[in-house]
Amino acid sequence: MAEKTHSDGAKGAHDVHTSTGDHGGGHSSTFPPFNSETFAPQLVWLFLTFTLLYVLMSRLVLPRIGEVIEERRDRIQRDLDTAERLKGDTDKALADYEKALSDARTNAGSIARETREKLDVKVAERQAVVDAEIDGRIAEAEKQIAETRAKAQASVSDIASDVAGAIVKQLIDTDVSSADVKAAIASQANS
Amino acid sequence: MAAGHGPIEQFEIKELVPIELFGINASLTNSGAYMIAALGLIFGFLYFSTGGRSLVPTRLQSISEILYEFVATTVRENIGTKGMQFFPLVFSLFIFVLVLNLFGMIPIPGVTFTVTSHIAVTASLAILVISIVILYGLYKHGLGFFGIFVPSGVPIALYPLLIPIEIISFISRPISLSVRLFANMLAGHIALKIFASFIGLLLGAGVWAILAPLPLLLTIALTALEVLVAVLQAYVFAVLTCIYLSDAVHGSH
Description:
The structure holds two protein chains of two kinds. Chain A is mostly helical.
């Protein structure tokens, strides 16, 4: 075959075309890329390999890689969506908690106020009762004092008439009835 | 050894298994073998790295996903979501060209070969792209597809001048698409080979051997550049494919 001479070919032929660049010495010295005799086998194998490559790529390999990439993209999107949803849930829970907390605070305030008011009322009632009792006792005590005083005053005049009678007996040795003494004292006290 | 050969040697097509089908030479060559290897590596890697289909990707699965996302983004940005029907095509073109370009950067003496350094391969891929653009454009927009040759917002008086220019630029697309990739690969590998052979020449030239590290450093730098070019050209091929397909999808602008 003609191509045989290309392969391990005659050394002389190579020396010729490399040193002089001469294209005249038959196809063995033709510049290889322009040697039309080698076109057919190149094109046949190019056709076979490239067609097979195209079929394998388009039917098998590329869909497979595309699928993996697509699946990963979907998965990431799904995960992001889930994260978004969970974040929303968290925010909502947090808001609920804050609301509950502020509600509890207001409740606590109102309970405290009510309790205070209730206690104030009770204190006032108790105060009134105690005050009334004390007033009663004071009034009683005053009445007793007044009675005691009146009694004391009454007994003072009795004693005074007794004393006056005694004095009169001592001075003039005359028994004077207590009624007379009393009358005398009364007349003196009136003048 | 490789050092004994010229810079063109690496582009030789070597027949490995002679096959003839229907009078066509369908022999398995080193080019065909590299294409099969590329197919095997691409499919094996992408298929088995994603075998786990793990939600949290393994390292290898990440590479597959990054490649997928990268090409998908390129298609979406250049054609729009309507263009995703072409995603498998653009992905196949990108990964195929990328792996073949990078395979050419693996130095194996006497074996290393860059499939994309052959115009027959790059031109076929470019013609495939342009054919799809034309066929899909006609299918989608009918004859209105040829409206892409009529520039918008231009006075009618200029049409006789501009329409031929647009047609020429459209026709030159497959040429530029194929030649760009082919020439980049070819030139880069020739330059690498030449600078690398200087190392051997200087080492064998007595006192001049002292200069040998210079081309070595240059070769290292060039190798890095070539890896970059290999990736970049695959990307350029994919982006241009997208831009051309965008015309077919959206019709005249």
